[in-house]
Amino acid sequence: MTSSSSSTLVTVVVILCCWCGGCRAQTEVSAVYVFGDSLADVGNNNHLALSLLKADFPHNGVDFAGHKATGRFSNGKNFADFLGVRQIPS
User: At 65, is the pLDDT very low, low, confident or very high (cuts 50, 70, 90)?
Assistant: First the structure.
């Protein structure tokens, strides 16, 4: 019986918080930080003077607009790019 009354109380509190505006989401994101491994970090070393391995070859960037090398060790966007594009204010 105690379990059912406490779950009812929690449900009522959540509904009241949402109804009063306590669950409003922020509509604008100022930045997206992704901490990850090689699936999220495609690298960019074109601006490092001492780097011997650069990512400015034509096949790196074939999926981007203009089919131009972007300095990333990837032929296109990764999941962080797709998440970030949805957050850019229009």
Answer: confident
The tokens describing 64, both together, are 């981007």
What distances in angstroms separate CA 72 from CA 7, 10, 18, 31, 40, one per listed residue? Answer: 51, 49, 43, 20, 11
In this prediction the pTM is: 0.42
CA–CA–CA angle 20, 25, 26 (5° rounding) = 130
Report the alpha-carbon distance of residue 55 to residue 87 in Å, rounded: 27
Helix/strand/coil for 65: helix
Q: DSSP H helical segments within the chain, as ranges?
A: 2-19, 79-87
Residue 8 in this model has a pLDDT that exceeds 80: yes
